[in-house]
Amino acid sequence: FDVTGKNVYIHDCDVWNQDDCIAVKDGSQDMLFERINASGLGLTIGSIGGSAVRNITFRNCTMNNTYKGIYIKFRDSDTPSSIVDVLYENILINAPEQWAIWIGPAQQSDSDRLCAPHPCSLCWPEVPGSECNAPLSGTMMNVTLRNITVNNPKQSP
Fold first, then answer.
1. Which stretches in the chain have pLDDT values below 50?
2. In what order do the strands lie in the sheet with 6-16?
3. What is the value of pTM for the model shown?
């Protein structure tokens, strides 16, 4: 689900894919996601660039064999961006393949060079010389992770 808007409530569903399971997009506010079973790139906010996102809650969710779990990301932008008043609560992440929790630059490739940093290389940190650059225009405030359980991570920072 790529979700943009205001006053959104998504609940009691299963999401299995190879991309962001739930992706809160630019300009969104007042959203609640709960009782979701997911596997893919996680319960995501972003990638945000040039807008404000506020009052987003993920609650009572389970992710089994997911690639990432909690994923909050900025992309490059010439305009200031903000992510404010976010709550992840009662989240269970079982056997994540990569980072169970990633808060920072979007780890993606926007070119035919897979390891190019846009802003953070998909190859980072495994491939020597790959880069992960934090966008300068992004601000996060009041991001709360409460009662997050990670079991059997395959990779950890």
1. none
2. 6-16, 29-39, 52-64, 81-94, 138-151
3. 0.91
